């Protein structure tokens, strides 16, 4: 099985370990993530003004290019997924806006591509049973908090990846990998997102709420699906440790790193050295490595 894949800007630069671990994992499970032959930035933000159609031209161009290579497009970054899926809905449902946007990009795209997050591919195209069967290094005994954040689920009526208030896709993947999922109150709350650019104090507070909520519920590890969430949590770690009595920090990794680890990929290929908080002591303590 070959699925057209949109890496996006961040995974092509800052978050290469996210990209590389996913590609290797896909290969181990038995499918190929075929990077689009031509792609551009998705814009990184869905416009808040409904009539700002020029802002949809970049993601529309990505979708149009994807349509030339297949009927499905997958991506890893939650922000890219959010922008592409919501743009696709506009193009599919609104004929007038579709005509204007197609005029901008000089294409004839109708919103027919099925935009899937990599988690959906694993759940719906591959199946978690097949993922479980491919596990060579079970993550047994690791209490893991799945952090969904905002963009993977919201707006609920547009995204539809899972139950809006009680999502399980992340936890079910963790179970397949042998880990022990830990539900925590802030697992679908915001980390501060783009406020990292101009309001570090708010980001530290919100990211701190996520991490202390996870640890307070028993998590020893947090997994993410968003490079911006990953950045905010990791960057806030030291300040949260210094300002929160009893909190000593928690490793934060991409879910594809956990997937690759469980599938038996070489440790040195997973990019753990690029994570701010060292996950290796936990893995050694649990006898994983």
Envelope shape: globular
Counting DSSP E segments of at least 2 residues, the number of strands comes to 8
Can you tell me the residue ranges where pLDDT is under 50 for at least 5 consecutive residues?
A: none
Q: What CATH architecture of the largest domain would you give?
A: 3-Layer(aba) Sandwich
Summarize the structure in words.
With 289 residues, the chain is of the alpha/beta class. The protein folds into two domains: 2-118, Glutathione S-transferase Yfyf (Class Pi), Chain A, domain 2 (Up-down Bundle); 135-285, Rossmann fold, CATH 3.40.50.11810. 46% of the residues lie in helices and 11% in strands. A four-stranded parallel beta sheet has the order 2-1-3-4, sandwiched between helices. A four-stranded parallel beta sheet has the order 6-5-7-8, with helices on both faces. Strand 7, helix 11 and strand 8 form a beta-alpha-beta unit. Helix 3 (57-67) packs across helix 4 (78-93) and helix 4 (78-93) crosses helix 5 (95-105). It starts with a strand and ends with a helix. The mean pLDDT is 96.
Which features would summarize this protein structure in a list?
289 residues; alpha/beta; Glutathione S-transferase Yfyf (Class Pi), Chain A, domain 2; Rossmann fold; 2 domains; four-stranded parallel beta sheet; 13 helices; 8 strands; globular
């Amino acid at each position: 099985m070959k699925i057209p894949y949109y890496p996006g800007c961040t995974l092509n630069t800052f978050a290469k370990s996210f990209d590389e671990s996913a590609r290797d994992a896909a290969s181990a499970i038995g499918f190929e993530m075929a990077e689009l032959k031509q792609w551009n930035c998705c814009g990184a933000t869905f416009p808040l003004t409904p009539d700002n159609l020029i802002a949809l031209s970049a993601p529309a161009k990505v979708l149009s290019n994807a349509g030339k290579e297949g009927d499905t497009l997958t991506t890893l970054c939650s922000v890219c997924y959010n922008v592409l899926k919501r743009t696709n809905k506009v193009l599919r449902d609104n004929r007038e806006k579709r005509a204007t946007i197609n005029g901008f990009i000089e294409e004839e795209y109708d919103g027919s591509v099925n935009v899937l997050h990599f988690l959906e591919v694993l759940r719906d195209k591959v199946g978690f049973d097949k993922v479980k069967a491919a596990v060579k290094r079970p993550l047994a005994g690791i209490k893991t908090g799945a952090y969904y954040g905002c963009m993977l689920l919201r707006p609920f009526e547009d995204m539809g990846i899972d139950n809006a208030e009680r999502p399980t896709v992340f936890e079910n993947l963790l179970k397949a990998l042998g880990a022990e999922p830990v539900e925590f109150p802030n697992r679908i709350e915001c980390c501060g997102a783009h406020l990292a650019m101009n309001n570090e104090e708010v980001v530290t507070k919100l990211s701190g709420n996520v991490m202390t909520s996870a640890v307070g519920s028993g998590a020893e590890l947090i997994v993410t699906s968003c490079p911006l969430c990953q950045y905010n949590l990791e960057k806030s770690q030291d300040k949260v440790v210094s300002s929160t009595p009893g909190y000593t920090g928690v490793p934060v990794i991409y879910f594809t790193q956990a997937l690759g680890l469980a599938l038996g990929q070489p440790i040195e290929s997973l990019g753990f050295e690029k994570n701010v908080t060292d996950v290796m002591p936990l893995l050694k303590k649990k006898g994983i490595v």
